[in-house]
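pasting for ref
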Amino acid sequence: MKRYLILFLITFQGLMAQVQFEARVSKNTLGINERLRIDFIMNVDGDNFEQPAFEGFRMVAGPSQQISQSWINGRSSFQKIYSYILQPERKGSITIKSSAIEYNGQVYKTSPIKVTVTNAVAQERDPNDRPQGGNGNELLQLVAEVSKTNPYLNEPITVVYKLYFNYINVTGFKELAKPKYNDFWNQNIDVKQLSVEQGSFQGQQAYYVILKKTILYPQKSGRLTIQPLSLDIGVEMATNRRDMFGQMITTEGNRVVSAGSRTINVRPLPESSKPEGFTGGVGKLNFVVTPSKTKLKSGESLDLIVSAQGTGNMKLFTLPKPVVPNALEMYDPVHDESVSTSLSGMSGRISDKYTIVPQYKGKYAIKPMQFSYFDLSTGSYKTITSKEIMIDVLDGPTLAEENPSTAAKSMATQDQFTHIKTRTVLTGIAKNDFYGSNLYLGLLFAPFIIIPLIILVKKRKEAIDSDVTGNRIRMNNKLAKKYLSQAKKHLNNKEPFYIALEKAMHNFLKAKLHIETSEMSKANIRELLLSRNAKEETVQSFIELTENCEFARYAPASSASIQQDYDKAVLIISELEKQIV
């Protein structure tokens, strides 16, 4: 009996060891615009198949089931496959969890599979990546048309995203991955209405729609990469079948398309001929210095307007600062921009307005100013020199210099008797006893006052230490004030200023909304602030300012614009303090 029991156990273990259940993917690394096939394969007819949730993926097709069974040399083989087609919804490392089946009362699971999703990649047209029923002639292609691939530093280039299609209807689209313009100043140009135009793609007649227009100014020389735009397109196409009324039957589906990454080779501006004082202006510019008046009385003020106008990188350079005589008191400028941006680039006028107040009567010269820019049409630097401006102050005190010997003699006379004290304090010879004095009484009763205070302070400290949430809020408020003060110290140093300003804004949110850094997405910040009765315009200003901090590190900025951003941060924090409940 024991022999049969052992034989049965060995046979049963052999049968159990033959059960195989595994998951296989078509690739372990794919672009966000590609699709993934996953097969769950078993060599037994298992029951109660449980598919994973496929978090991070959208199911495009499936499950499809295949069963095969064969007999070879008296031995049978069986295979059942559940297949799915998946579309990734985000980039990064995504884990497909285990699937399960049941066989002879036992549960078998597949091992989890890690899949890495990268940026969109260029791919050939795949007949399996289109809705079933098409005739194979369908065209659906997203193209990024770049106006110039070898511009100068700060020369404008345009990127126009066109969707070409033929023998197919586009029913809608959504962005899977937005293009990234690292090391570019960029601005989107509004596409007011999508209109279908006729054109050609690779020699084939097609229709196209312009989806997006962007103007770029490279901020660094060398090879820069534009990350691609990827779209999930809803499509509808005709099949080769007709219904009972003779109408063509159509089928709907989805396609993922990508414009592919583009490389821009940015040329640096010539260094050998670069003028002294060049501040980064590129384009076709004019420079003017205009006083509001040249004759005035003492105590009156005049406005000196330093401006540049034309076409070029208007927001990305600074204007020179005037030099005035000491007798003229000059205040910090007020910066003004009147600039429009189109596909041809930025154009308009920027200006700095200085208020000048004379202190003494006389005639004073404001020296000529020089402004240099790089002219794209000639490929060379141009320098414009303003005229000398004479300021005539008609009345007021006259600036006179003292005679040095007279000044020294006067000073010596004043210092001659400084060692003589004019007030005497007399102290009595007799000494008072310590016993009964005010100091004695104070020291006697001090313990009765100090000990209760120590007890109260200790209890207060214990209460504060136990309030973890309150401590965190107080710490974040303290950090916000610290970084705002730190930002104020760097008003003349762009990059440290914007780093400190951004940290202050974030720590203010931590204190007010009780959130961590990992929760600081734009959508979450907007939702939380609005739920706490913050006004929409204040929330939008907060988000725009935090975005501007990142952009402003790369773009040139004037001291006036930095001061404006600091004042705006103080105003926004003050408004949110009042509005948040």
